[in-house]
Amino acid sequence: MLRTIWKGAISFGLVSVPIKLFPATEQKDVKFRYLHKECQAPIRYQRVCSACGKEVTQEDIVRGYEYESGRFVIINEEDLDKIPDDRTRTIDIIDFVSLEEIDPLYFDKTYYLAPGEAGEKPYSLLRQAMAETGKIAVAKVVIRNKESLAVVRGYQDYLVMETIYYPDEIRNPAQLPGFDRKIELHDNEMKMARELIENLATTFEPEKYTDEYRKKLLEMIHAKIEGEQIAVPEVAAQGKVVDLMDALKASVEMAKKSSDKEKKPARKKRKKASGE
């Protein structure tokens, strides 16, 4: 059962939709702890003041904003409470736009929205209306003393909210080094590249993608736990690509073979006759 992390309402014109917020994703990274090499015991990290060297507790810690190098202004809870904001419990819809207009670069974190008490009807109304118009909602929401830009959209039978970055949080790609935008592309190269993409094109089936590295890492960890010998596979050396067209042709041939293999129906074994 998912745990509710926030309760509030979606403000939709004069309509208020009570909702509950749940995390929609989880990290499944394999986590390591750092150990003392000699004792093989976990390393303990302490909070120590950089000035007096004393270890401090959570109660001794306050927020500080560094406005100049080494100079801070203290911000406490009372200061934060003085900031006027009536939207601390509201997902305030500002606009409705098409999903295709938002580049995936803007998306940050996804949350499920479930209807709150007596909110089933307006919740269903908003979800279905957006589905029929093909629009998603752009909204603002305040969670944990932070105002976020977000979008609300339908996902299966539910609504989801995805926090997105503000435009000034997206770095300008023009600052990237070493890219000459005046590259001359030959017709044959473009033709082969398009053919390669078309041969690899398919429908998106997320369940077929798995974290192979995590799987191998966990297998290695369990082998070490059981005291088994770990086999190290040989990695085939990759040849250096010299000619772009040769690489494209080889890639197209590989993609065609792979595609033909997937489309080829499996042979059914002929049943033996009783007399055979």
From TrEMBL:
Any GO BP: DNA recombination
Residue numbers spanned by region Disordered: 253-276
Record GO terms (molecular function): double-stranded DNA binding
CDD domains named in the record: KU_like
Pfam families xref list: Ku
Transmembrane region(s): none
Keywords: DNA damage, DNA recombination, DNA repair, DNA-binding
Domain (Ku) ranges: 53-181
Coiled coil segments of this chain: none
Compositionally biased tracts (Basic residues): 264-276
Compositional bias per record (Basic and acidic residues), positions renumbered to this chain: 254-263
Role, per record: With LigD forms a non-homologous end joining (NHEJ) DNA repair enzyme, which repairs dsDNA breaks with reduced fidelity. Binds linear dsDNA with 5'- and 3'- overhangs but not closed circular dsDNA nor ssDNA. Recruits and stimulates the ligase activity of LigD.
PANTHER family named in the record: NON-HOMOLOGOUS END JOINING PROTEIN KU (PTHR41251)
Subunit structure: Homodimer. Interacts with LigD.
Similarity comment: Belongs to the prokaryotic Ku family.
Protein name as catalogued: Non-homologous end joining protein Ku
Organism: Dethiobacter alkaliphilus AHT 1
